Amino acid sequence: MNQKIFVSAKEVADRAGVSRSAVSRTFTPGASVSEETRRRVMEAAEALGYHVNHLARGLMRNESGLVCLIVSEMDTPYRSSLIRAISHQLQAVSKIAMLINTDRSDKSVDDALRLAISYRADASIILSGMPDKSITDLCVKSGQRLVLINRDEEREGALMINLNDREAAHRAFIAFQRAGCRRLAFANSDVGTPSLKAREEGFVAAAIEAGVEVIVERFGPTRYQSGVILAQRLLTREARPDAIFCANDLLACGVMDTARHQFKLTVPDDICVIGFDYIEQCSWSSYDLTTFAQPVDQIAKEAVSWLTHPAKTDSIASQISPELVWRGSVRGG
């Protein structure tokens, strides 16, 4: 079996007839090197198949350029779009993403993170409220920089990015009121992340303040099929709701399909629906879903920009207000 042999900078220098330091300067942005030397080094590197060992270079500067993305539910549309946006931003600043899947709450997650730390990963970005806080503890103990997205914990020296979920929920309530809806419901999962709780609590609080009762149903993971079950529970009540605010778009899609196909209701004439996340599917003509847009590009830019600046001991909190995108699932939208 052939073993991969990595070409060294010394081999390139010998072939090009230059010093080892000349090779290093050639591959260092902004370093001084003559055009003739650059040409000879590049030709030798191309012939030998040489690539710069950025990991070794980084370790000499006490940084590797590796960033852990600690993720749950990575196959959901919103999470995959956030992973895509963050990985693109990391690549733009010459950093490499290492993906750690936390869907399984067993020792494999801890082992994966410890392996990433052993490779001297500089930082971790935790992309949701689901991963256990023990993961955050391990990152802090290992001296990593931290970005926490949609989590309710505060860590010294970390950047915390959260949406103003309560304010968004209040706007959803107003939208239903202006559409003439009187029997309101909130459809949630059993996941219980801080952001999902805040949407529910904000919606209920806005309704109580206005003297309006809200039916709350929770079931299962934050998935399409859970929306089907939630719709069945809500729409078989004697006092059937005429408006449902869903904790995310996947739930909303399940609710809408069940309302129309199983209960023969019309959206938005018989029932209005609002979702949350702004996934691609909610723009499809079969849903045309009014929803709150999670600004994934802004979140990614803030996270990566913060990681590229010198570390600070103080924690920094960033709160973003999601935009309400009006479509046809609410009357008057």
UniProtKB/TrEMBL annotation:
SUPFAM superfamilies: lambda repressor-like DNA-binding domains, Periplasmic binding protein-like I. Keywords: DNA-binding, Repressor, Transcription, Transcription regulation. GO terms for molecular function: DNA-binding transcription factor activity; transcription cis-regulatory region binding. CDD domains: HTH_LacI, PBP1_LacI-like. Residues 7-61 form the HTH lacI-type domain. Gene3D superfamilies: 3.40.50.2300, lambda repressor-like DNA-binding domains. PANTHER family: LACI-RELATED TRANSCRIPTIONAL REPRESSOR (PTHR30146), RIBOSE OPERON REPRESSOR (PTHR30146:SF95). This is DNA-binding LacI/PurR family transcriptional regulator. It comes from Aliirhizobium cellulosilyticum. The lineage of its organism: Bacteria, Pseudomonadati, Pseudomonadota, Alphaproteobacteria, Hyphomicrobiales.
